[in-house]
Amino acid sequence: LQLAVYFFRYDQADKIADRFAGVAKGDHSYAQLVSRLMFTGLAAAGCYRATKKRKYLRKLRRADETLEKLARDKGANCLHRSFLLEAEVKAVTKAHPSKIRDRYELAILIAKKNGCLHDAALASELAGEAFLRMGKKEMIRDYFMEAVKYYTAWGCMAKVDDIKQRRMEFLDHEKLLTLQEMAASKMQMVTVGLPGKGNSSEDTIGGNTGTISTITPIISRSGQGKNRRASGTLGIGMVEEDEDDVSVLTDGSE
């Protein structure tokens, strides 16, 4: 299921998701639910874009709503995945680009801060694809380069090659060379058996990630005056949703 989503085989992914749901029907473990909901939702989003069949939009929204509830009731570990599905809902329903971008940005930033480089990579790539479909070319390059950076850090060179083959025109050649040198250096370290201690959390897969202890998953998407807050160690300030669903994203750099 995950491989099919990563390589955009959405029709295949949707069929696998349906079978997986049947097999895992009695498994209510948190890890299984979070993973299945995210990839089921992403597969449904891809199928809806391709076919415009409402059943896929309903499936995406169910996955989104259930994942939101998990983030609210069982902790913030899946909050970035909830934001990613929300971004996909907004993208396929043609919400305002600024609202779509806010959700992708939150998904990417929280995934990165929580050490989930694979999710940060996928969210970056999906954001690039979304804005490419919208014709927002000024936004595309950074997202695809971020995806390549996170996939390289994760060690998933198959996805790096995939993006290079499909979206080379949007990639920065000098930055690609730098990333390739970094990847080669890491491979050399592994080959000669050097210890990996001393690396930062961004240089390892799920390394010294810490926790998102200061995120309060008070999530409302109905415009009833509640706030979705993200503060403290994330350094991204606060995202508020008021009655007209206008959100503000800040990364603390301004």
Secondary structure topology:
Layout: H1 2-6, H2 10-23, H3 30-51, H4 54-74, H5 79-92, H6 97-113, H7 117-134, H8 137-154, H9 157-167, H10 173-191, E1 215-216, E2 227-230, E3 238-240
Antiparallel strand pairs: 1-2, 2-3
Helix pairs in contact: 2-3, 3-4, 3-5, 4-5, 5-6, 5-7, 6-7, 7-8, 8-9, 8-10
Task: Write up what this structure looks like.
The protein is mainly α. It is 63% helix and 4% strand. The protein is built from 10 helices and 3 strands; from the N terminus they run ααααααααααβββ. The protein has a 3-stranded antiparallel β-sheet with strand order 1-2-3, with no helix packed on it. Strand 2 and strand 3 form a beta hairpin. The radius of gyration is 18 Å and the shape is globular. 40% of the residues are buried. The C terminus is likely disordered.
Concise synopsis of the structure shown:
The chain has 254 residues and is mainly α. It contains 10 helices and 3 strands.
What multimeric state do the chains show? single chain
Largest sheet: 3 strands, antiparallel
What is the percentage of strand-forming residues? under 5%
Distance between the termini: 40 Å
Cα-atom Rg, whole angstroms?
18 Å
Keywords:
single chain; mainly alpha; 3 strands; 63% helix; globular
